Amino acid sequence: MAVTGKTGGATAPLLVLLDTAYNQASWHGPNLRGSLRGVPLGAAAWRPRPGAHNVWELLVHAAYWKYVVWRRLTGAARGSFPLEGSNFFERPLRRTAAAWRDDLRLLDAVHRDLRAAVAATRPRDLEKRLPGSRVTRLHLIAGAAAHDVYHAGQIQLLKKLHSGRAGR
């Protein structure tokens, strides 16, 4: 993982935090992207009960909140997320491998955007509160990493529950 940007020294630990929670080797077990690797379409769309979220919805939810953190760090206007809605998005709309791959690519793209925004954050701004918020940039970025790990754990559990159904 290359740390880029003029503030690489100050943001390097935050980039490591984001990347180990998302797609780089970590000691804590599967990260978010690792938890999604090799998930078959049926498992991605399966719900443990009616109304419960599935793996696919957790993937898009994670993408949305990476986007929100990116937007808050960059000051970008609301409404630029590529999907209509917010927070949780019903999935699948089309139960196809192509639709699953599209959402995986969306997650990767918003992670890259978030990483770039973190790398561009000035060290002196990390401890400043975001406009209209009691949260600092540092806490927002750390929370984004924690959010990925949290949902990676949920996805691992859903995968385990889904695979346990095969014996019934």
Care to describe what's here?
This protein has 168 residues and is mainly alpha-helical. It has one domain (8-167): dinb family like domain (Four Helix Bundle (Hemerythrin (Met), subunit A), Up-down Bundle). 57% of the residues lie in helices and 0% in strands. It contains six helices and no strands. The chain has helices at residues 8-22, 32-36, 41-45, 55-74, 97-119, 137-164. Helix 1 packs antiparallel against helix 5 (97-119), helix 4 (55-74) runs parallel beside helix 5 (97-119) and helix 4 runs antiparallel to helix 6. It is globular and about 50 Å long.
Short description:
57% of the residues lie in helices and 0% in strands. The chain has six helices and no strands. Helix 1 runs parallel beside helix 6, helix 4 runs parallel beside helix 5 and helix 4 packs antiparallel against helix 6.
Q: Report the CATH architecture.
A: Up-down Bundle
Sketch the topology as an H/E string, one letter per element. Answer: HHHHHH
Rg from Cα: 17 Å
What is the fourth-level CATH superfamily?
dinb family like domain
Shape: globular
**Count of folded domains:** 1
Helical fraction equals: 55-70%
Strand count, sense and barrel status of the largest sheet are: none
In whole angstroms, the N-to-C terminal distance is: 43 Å
Count the beta strands. 0
